[in-house]
Amino acid sequence: MLKRLCEIAVCGVLLCVIALPASGSESASVVPQRVVSLNLCTDELLLLLADPEQIHSMTWLVKDPMLSWFAAEAKAYPANRGLAEEILLAEPDLVLTGMFTAPATVALLKQFGVPLLQLPMATNYATIVEQIRTVARALGQRERGEQVITQMRARLAQLPPVPRLPNDAAPLTAALFQPNGLTATADTLVHAALEQAGLRNLAEIRQLPNFARLPLETLLYDQPDLLVLNDYLEKKPSLAQQVMRHPALQRSFVAARKVVVPAQAWSCGTPNYVRAVEILRHAAIALISRYEQAG
Amino acid sequence: MNKPVNIPYSFLVLTLAALVCLLSLWSLSVGRAPLQLWDVLAGMWSAEGADASTNGVAAVIVTELRVPRVLLGVLVGASLGMAGAAMQGLLRNPLAEPGIVGVSGCAALGAVLVFYSGLSTQFPMALPVGGVVGALAAVGLLYLLAGRRSTILTLILAGVAINAFAGALTSLVLNLSSSPFAFLEIIFWQMGSLADRTMEYVWLCLPLMAAGWLMLWRSAPVLDALSLGEETAASLGFHLPKYQLLVIGGTALAVGSGVAVSGVVGFVGLVVPHLLRPLVAYQPGRLLMVSALGGAALVLAADIALRLTPTDTELKLGVVTALVGAPFFLYLVHKLRREVV
């Protein structure tokens, strides 16, 4: 699932220049009362910004705590399976979807004149802010949107600064390493969070193409200062997971050089992204002080 | 038939062993990390005190990533080569090969069942055992369907059916698995790979594999006798059913435990015995040892070739052996057709 999310993310990146429909701003006076969401990320934004009475249904994905930190709130609302039939029957006055959610369904909804708001995948902090603003406006919840954005800004401003490294050294490097050796390249929230935390992404230094795998040998040879891991599905057996338990990986990265970021934090462009930046910034600071002690 | 080539047996064995050693060294020095062969060897000596220093990094990469890869390449290649030679001898059929007749496919099914059910997480040894049980089922079935006095056609048809069935069941098991990664991993099980394997796998498959080799080795005299026909072999005093079980069991142990750790690597057991047969004067018994060495060399060479190919994601091992093996297989079919008709 995570991999699929990543794929969607990168697809989003490739085509995200498509402008958002302007209909949201025009109809700001008309507050939608039956909103349906068809995408995990728009589910989260809906839960964050709408009044409970406005929500008609959201996907079943958001109710899974492995996928979303909004799972507890989402329990209260009916789930949809994203099929055009059930959505048309619900007669929504606004449907939120991702840019690449089931194209056939979306085309059908358009044909029936259902009001749609399609969001591309968030790729950095600026797009998160922009998307919160867009959805809030479409939901007639401008103020709540601004509140959320202000809170995010405040949390980021409160972060302790990254101390300068003693001898001019380049910033610390970090690499995300997921099952199958998948990493995250530029134009992803992972990359954005690493940069915002003051770290350099090894995948960018290595100029890996989108979707690239980071071969275990390259990772061990390049020795990034920080190994970033997602805690996801560790219990279920798969070959993809086996590489995470490779003894070479365990031997090369002591605990202090590993940091775990929950996948839910940066799978969608919500204020949870700030949590990822916080975790990474604190890990970077701890590592720098460790280096200073070691001389 | 080609003419036998006069090469002393011991010279041939030594040459092939030297080739395997050379390819092993080469394989140790190939990889994503730009290490020179010298660094590699130095890294291996200093492996004890491995830390984050440059030397330590080389040591970890060599000892934890590349050494298991080379060892597994040798083990799996030797098993496939030897099993191919033994099956061709037992069935007296030049197209018998673990991959083509479905033994490897069933071994993969057994390993997949054990692995994705989580059984091998609790009992690691269950993984090669699962592979062996799968392989045993296939060889047994094959022998029942097309064992004695079968034509080339019956054997291949039985093999195609077993292979297709095992492949379908493997894909079903992976579909039903709870892990979201599982389905894509059918590529590993059907095409094989030695990437990022650990020493644990070497220790897991080695005991069963060694037992398999021993059983095949013990069957060498009867394979020689069988080349004169079953009646002749029996009249020479060989108790045939016992030796048939020896070859079946040995093949299942060697191939099954290998497939459980590397996935299906096809065509090795076909190409190698065919190339080497004229060099041992068409004696099936002598062919066993040289095919084991030749198989190890072929798998090592394929594993080097795929790492030298500049692709973003590594090619699968079975892809490279198939690129060599499939045309060879077609050539053999063509040749046999001419001889038979």
Structure, explained:
The complex is a heterodimer of chains A (295) and B (341). By secondary structure, chain A is an alpha/beta fold. Chain A contains 15 helices and 9 strands. The longest helix of chain A is centred in the C-terminal third of the chain and has 23 residues, at 272-294. Chain B has 341 residues and is mainly α. Chain B has a single domain (74-340), classed as ABC transporter involved in vitamin B12 uptake, BtuC (Orthogonal Bundle). Helices cover 74% and strands 0% of the residues of chain B. Chain B has helices spanning 9-28, 37-45, 54-91, 103-116, 119-122, 126-146, 152-176, 186-191, 199-218, 220-226, 230-235, 240-262, 268-276, 284-308, 317-340. In chain B, helix 3 (54-91) packs antiparallel against helix 12 (240-262). The mean pLDDT of chain B is 88.
Short note summarizing the structure:
The complex is a heterodimer of chains A (295) and B (341). Chain A is of the alpha/beta class and 295 residues long.
